[in-house]
Design brief:
3-stranded antiparallel beta sheet; 3 helices
Amino acid sequence: MSKSAESGRFSWPIAFTFLGLIIAAVVIIVFLRLESWPARTAAQGTTELERLGRDLRSAFIDVAHLQPRITINNRVYLEQSIPTSELVILSRRIEVEHELLHSWVGSAKRVKLHGTFTVKAGFDLRQDLAVDIGTDEIVVQLPHAQLLGVEQERVDVLAFENGFWNRISANDVQNELSILPQLAREKAAESNLPSEAEDALEKQLHERIHTRQPLRLVFTSSTKTD
């Protein structure tokens, strides 16, 4: 009986010792986890932003066939790569007419032309295009859209009337032909085609890119038409 009681007295201190060691180990583990939590959180945040940067690169390649310069928290993550110098977003058919009516000493000549053109609006990619990914928002910086080109589809002669001694010359015809593209460009500018191109690009990016942060487009150039 004495040996059993003595064994019972020694088992309790040993149990308390082991319990103390276990508690100390738990405290150390919790302390180390708390101490490393900011670094682990930052690493996870950076990884998520880099994944978002890759997704944005893929989206721009799909939508615009280019890779913009992408920065993450003001650090360059991907450099800009542009396979073409221009990005056409919208094209529109424009029809215009112009008439030359000239009278000299009672003799009149008349030329009237009707032109059909395709006017293209988009972005000059020779200017900076950059994407800055932050924890609060994504900012896409690019130049304003502008008219990129006017392509003639066809020209119809509606009137070609010579005067008796006031004849239509080759210069008359050439001048009339050169006026038509200018009229088409002016008509496209009045229709606000560049602004429509900006809205179209923004819509495409919002449809293609789904992020937690809001996406904001910033247009940096002051000139929107040629």
